[in-house]
Amino acid sequence: MCALDAAGFAADESTLAETPSRLSLRADLLKMQGPATEALRQFYRDHVLGDPGETLSRYVAFALLAGPPPDFRFQVKREVLPPDVLAIEEFQQLLVNFYREAQLEKRWATIEPEYARAAARYQSPVRRIVTVTNAYLREVLKPAYARTFTVYVEPLVGNRTIFRNNGDYYGIVVGAGAQVPVDEIQHAYLHFMLDPLPLRHRKQIESKSALLNIAARAPRLPVQYQTDFFALTDECLIKAVELRLRRLSPPQLEAALADADQSGFVLVRPLVGQLQKFEKAEPAMSYYFPDLIAGIDVAVEQKRLKKISYAAATPGADPKQDSAASKAPGSELNSLLAEGNRQIAAQDAPAAEATFEKILAKYPDDSRAIYGLAIASVLNGKAGRARELFESLVADPAAASSAAKKRGGTADPSILAWSHVYLGRIDDLEGERDLAVTEYRAALAVGGAPEAAYFAARRGVEEKYNAPAHENSDQGSSKPNGPQ
């Protein structure tokens, strides 16, 4: 973080008000001169991204995998380093040189008390989150599980929170501001506690997957959940537990459940009902989970959801404004992308292929259209074509970022992560397990990727992917029948 200060990272200094010594150190580091510092600044300029949050996330990912000073050696093998860390791996030696030139060991001694106080502020709320959550789930963590959840306090991240997991190691990096992001920490901790359960009970969850097509019609449902029923189940369970922990009044609970339904998180309501039964039972959640899933009646839910009116993609959108926006430049592209995504959600692969090919004929470098065509190819059983498209998306993330900037945006970490997941699934179906695990690990460490992609990638690392339904073939490859 000191290296980012010296390099000129665009931090919001108002968020450092609670740590005046840290703010003073930042000012000193910005004025530093020396060969190591200048080399560091040049490297930072050469690798800076358009979004400060994305830049920070990349270096945080590096920090979570690097060892202690003065050597900062990576704690994992190079072949399993995530793409965003590999992109800046030369930063390691620059950091070693800068650490010595800046005499950071001495500087740390002056600001360590501030860090200790900042961390101390989190001890009580984090302890409460852990205690309340574990008590509700009736779970006791044991060191033998070799799984860890860590909250890192770093003033430089400001009001952001950065949640990453590398295999069994979950970490959330938070700032040192006046407000403790309790909800974000609790959500991350629930992922730590509950993510393994769907992995252990694939068959029970697959038996309910008919509800995915209904949920996927919701315009507000994030795209990463529209084709991954395991990820949707995991996220709905976490949301359901959060609602039970909030102890809402009946009207408040009904309003929250209605919002979940209208947003496409259609399993939250039945899971809340099953959690009410769990609360009267005795087993821990890890033992009760199969009963929780078994209690979801697909036929009943299908009948109930026929009456649901899904919310618009943008809450409170004005139809007149929407009409005006449809005439704005770029609206044709967005409209076609939305149409292609709706066709994918409806499992209409031929129509989706045609839509995304039409987009690419006019916008050949649009990564969203390339990704959409790859997904449509997966659904159509064209694994060979899908592989080529996904590989083009992950081959050069820097190029993808450049193309995205030309559109006025930034590279989408969701596309990068999900492309790695799909490549892993294709490798699994072709019997290339080692290659598949490499792809899943690459997806796990994409900075800023959605939680659903992390969940799918982790499932892939732990268990070989098998197409759950019928198989087809294309150039000798099995059909990876969607990311289920």
What are the key terms here?
3-stranded mixed β-sheet, 3 domains, disordered C terminus, 484 residues, Serine Threonine Protein Phosphatase 5, Tetratricopeptide repeat, two-stranded antiparallel sheet, 5% strand, mainly alpha, 61% helix, 26 helices
Describe the 3D structure.
This protein has 484 residues and is mostly helical. The protein folds into three domains: 2-174, no CATH class; 196-305, no CATH class; 330-478, Serine Threonine Protein Phosphatase 5, Tetratricopeptide repeat (Alpha Horseshoe). The protein has 26 helices and five strands. Helix 15 crosses helix 16 (285-294), helix 22 (383-394) packs across helix 24 (413-429) and helix 24 (413-429) runs parallel beside helix 26.
Write the layout of secondary structure elements.
Elements: H1 2-7, H2 20-31, H3 35-47, H4 52-65, H5 83-86, H6 91-101, H7 104-137, E1 148-153, E2 161-166, E3 169-174, H8 182-194, H9 196-200, H10 202-206, H11 212-215, H12 223-226, H13 229-245, H14 250-262, H15 268-278, H16 285-294, H17 298-305, H18 319-325, H19 331-345, H20 349-362, H21 367-379, H22 383-394, H23 397-406, H24 413-429, H25 433-444, H26 451-462, E4 473-474, E5 477-478
Helix pairs in contact: 2-7, 3-6, 7-8, 8-13, 13-15, 13-26, 15-16, 19-20, 19-21, 20-21, 21-22, 22-24, 24-25, 24-26, 25-26
Largest sheet: 3 strands, mixed
- Helix count, per DSSP? 26
The chain-level mean pLDDT equals 83
β-strand percent reads: under 5%
Tally the structural domains: 3
Distance between the termini: 39 Å
Query: How would you write the strand order of the largest sheet?
Result: 1-3-2
Helix content: 55-70%
Give start-end ranges of low-pLDDT stretches.
315-330, 398-410, 469-484
**Structural category:** mainly alpha
Q: Work out the number of β strands.
A: 5
Name the overall outline. globular
Radius of gyration: 24 Å
